[in-house]
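G., the chain you wanted modeled:
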Amino acid sequence: MLLDATVYEEVEHDVSALPQAAAVVALAALAGGVGGFPQVGFIAGLIQGFVVWGLGAAIVWVIGVRVLEHTSDYPELLRTLGFGLAPQILFVVGAIPLGPLTGLLMLVVAVMAIIAWVIAVRQALDISTGRAVAICLLAHVVSMVLFVLIPSFV
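Predicted structure as tokens:
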């Protein structure tokens, strides 16, 4: 949660860190269900958290590795992006009735989560921060298009 790039670098190379990354994803999803988005529900939120994690890593992998020819593999991206969801655990503060301060805290957590994903992408692909931001933005656009198109096919 401290947004320390060395942690993401270590996780990138630690093949045994995938279960811990999955635990972070689960905790972030559950925290979102408690404080950030209680209307989603715990089970649906947990499923959504894992789908977003896996699909997000896949989109970043396609853009960063296949299209832009940077070096990484899908498990590295899963590990780093899983840990990149750690700030979302703080969404649990949304359950605390703090009045207008709650919205501000939720915004801070969302910004921290975006920064964490940029750092995770930067470390996993060994690229500059600017390139990581561009890849994250492009991945977000692609995921939004997919989330609009997929329900129309189902």
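Residues 42-67 form the longest helix (26 residues).

Shout if anything looks off.
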